[in-house]
Structure formats: C-alpha cells, structure tokens
Amino acid sequence: MKAWRKRMAYGLTVAAAAVAIPLAAGTASAASWHDVAGGPEMYPNMAACKADIPEAKKHYKDATCVENNGRVSLWALY
Questions:
Q1: pLDDT at 5 (0 to 100)
Q2: Which long-range contacts does 40-43 make (Cβ < 8 Å, 24+ apart)?
Q3: What does each C-alpha distance from 41 to 35, 51, 72 come to in angstroms?
Q4: pLDDT at 31
Q5: Separation CA 26–CA 36 (nearest Å)
Q6: Residue 31: closest CA among 56, 58, 63
Q7: What are the residue ranges in the chain where pLDDT is below 50?
Q8: Those residues with Cβ within 8 angstroms of residue 25's Cβ, 6 or more apart along the chain or in another chain
Q9: Would you state the pLDDT for residue 33?
Q10: Number of C-beta neighbours around residue 11 at 10 A
Q11: pLDDT score at 63
C-alpha cells in the first residue's frame, strides 16, 4: 500500500511539472512589437520618428520606426 501512495505522489509531481514547464516558458517569451504612434500628422518623415526613439526606449524594451506605404510609425517592444 505504501508503494502505491509513493507512485501516485511521483506521478502527480511529474504531471504537474509537465504542465507547469511549458506554461512558464510561454509567458517568458511573450514580448511582442506594437504600433504605438504614427501617421502623417504625427510623423511627417522618418527623421521625426527617429527623434522619438530615445524617449520611447525609456518606457519600452526597444523601439524602432517603420515606413509602410508612406506612413511612418513608431513600434515598441513590450
């Protein structure tokens, strides 16, 4: 009877680890890029956007400017 209880305890421990490890790994890599500002009224050109990167890096992990179809946007890494 004692051996059965040990097996159950080990089995539950292994099952809990099998669930917890992928969940922990998934949340650690959850950083993603988001469009935080942009458009012709905000950034008429790439230079104007790049001027805001140092300030954005104070609040986010990283920042970059992207031009898409003539629209310049500031993207930040959360």
A1: 57
A2: 40/70, 40/71, 40/72, 43/72, 43/73, 43/74
A3: 15, 15, 10
A4: 81
A5: 24
A6: 63
A7: 9-20, 23, 26-27
A8: none
A9: 93
A10: 10
A11: 96
What pLDDT was estimated at residue 73? 94
The DSSP-derived string for the chain is -HHHHHHHHHHHHHHHHHHHHHHHHHHHT---EEEEEESTTT-SSHHHHHTTHHHHHHHSSEEEEEEETTEEEEEEE-
Q: How far, in Å, CA of 49 to CA of 65, rounded?
A: 6
Give the integer Cα–Cα distance in Å for 28 and 62: 16
Question: What's the length of the chain?
Answer: 78
